[in-house]
Amino acid sequence: MRRLTAKPECVRAVAFLPDGRLASASGKKQVTIWNPADGSVSETIRTRMFVFAIAVSATRNEAAFAGRGAPSDTHSTIQLHHLVGPHDRYELAWRIQGYPTRDTRTRSIWSLAYTGDGEHLIAARRVMGGGGMYDGGDCRWWDRRKVFDSAELAGQPRGYAVAADTSGSRFAVAEYSQFLVYDHPAVPPAETHPFSNHWASAVCFLPDGEVMIGSGQFLLSSDRHTRTGRLSRQKTDVRMIRTLAVSPTGHVLAVGGSPGRVELLDLPSRRLMTAYDFDLGPVQSLAFAPDGLTLAVGAEKGLIVVDVE
């Protein structure tokens, strides 16, 4: 185990780059690029927004960062960063409807995903709900082949979290009491799967093409051959699941959340292999290295990388 952050800080997002370096965001106006092997900082990328979400496309060799801007901003912003060649950086703007009565404090981007083919970038904003808790907001997609061509997702889901399959154009959106599976962002969802809880904080694709969400203590998953119907349900010892990650080999599922537990499950059996509590507080984000041998854990009190046995 190697601790990367010197001081306790809440690491909200982590993602490995294709070359094995690790990107992390701690809700500051920057993204830190680490060398996980020795814990050194390779690069610090300044941003205009407080970063809550990171997505990486190996196909495009591009990374996207987003989060919360200034209260006076009329748009939410996604900053794009080329990973090879000249490190060109440019931005995608997403207008905040109803501005100035709504601002970026109440409409921030919390979830990003590139489709497996690298052709589309999907984003979900959250809005402030009752009791100071965030609810799902709106979702948008950008055609990365046309740079700035974008539109609202078909069906206008109240997206809370998004994730994409590792190949092709399929992606999923977890929204209020259901999750949706899209074959393409410009067409209505191909699958709709209701569930009993209001919101799901985490969603991912399994190697067989099934979609899994984390809602409360439970893992819920679909059968891609069934357009509607009951979901499989598996209880974990993570009291509130916040993040899911599947290893590149497809053999391990990592589950993290509150109060600070990380579980590793074997795939496809979904049997518990091992569990950890790194004493870092609630786990916010998980990511596997490209070789599948290292897991990054971003939590309320810092960032670590661990070997996956």
Q: What distance lies between the first and last C-alpha atoms, to the nearest angstrom?
A: 12 Å
Q: Which ranges are low-confidence, i.e. pLDDT below 50, for 5 or more consecutive residues?
A: none
Helices, by number, come to 0
Q: Averaged pLDDT, please?
A: 89
Quantity of strands, as a count? 28
CATH-assigned fold name: Methylamine Dehydrogenase, Chain H
Structure description:
This protein is mainly beta and 309 residues long. It has a single domain, classed as Methylamine Dehydrogenase, Chain H (7 Propeller), CATH 2.130.10. The protein is built from no helices and 28 strands. The protein has strands spanning 2-3, 13-16, 22-25, 30-35, 40-46, 50-57, 62-68, 75-82, 89-95, 107-114, 120-128, 134-143, 149-152, 161-164, 171-175, 178-182, 191-194, 202-205, 211-215, 218-221, 232-235, 240-246, 252-258, 261-266, 272-277, 283-288, 294-299, 302-307. The strands form seven sheets. A four-stranded antiparallel sheet has the order 1-28-27-26, with no helix packed on it. A four-stranded antiparallel sheet has the order 2-3-4-5, with no helix packed on it. The chain has a four-stranded antiparallel sheet with strand order 6-7-8-9, with no helix packed on it. The relative contact order is 0.13. The model has no long low-confidence stretch (mean pLDDT 89).
Task: Describe the secondary structure blueprint for this structure.
Layout: E1 2-3, E2 13-16, E3 22-25, E4 30-35, E5 40-46, E6 50-57, E7 62-68, E8 75-82, E9 89-95, E10 107-114, E11 120-128, E12 134-143, E13 149-152, E14 161-164, E15 171-175, E16 178-182, E17 191-194, E18 202-205, E19 211-215, E20 218-221, E21 232-235, E22 240-246, E23 252-258, E24 261-266, E25 272-277, E26 283-288, E27 294-299, E28 302-307
Antiparallel strand pairs: 1-28, 2-3, 3-4, 4-5, 6-7, 7-8, 8-9, 10-11, 11-12, 12-13, 14-15, 15-16, 16-17, 18-19, 19-20, 20-21, 22-23, 23-24, 24-25, 26-27, 27-28
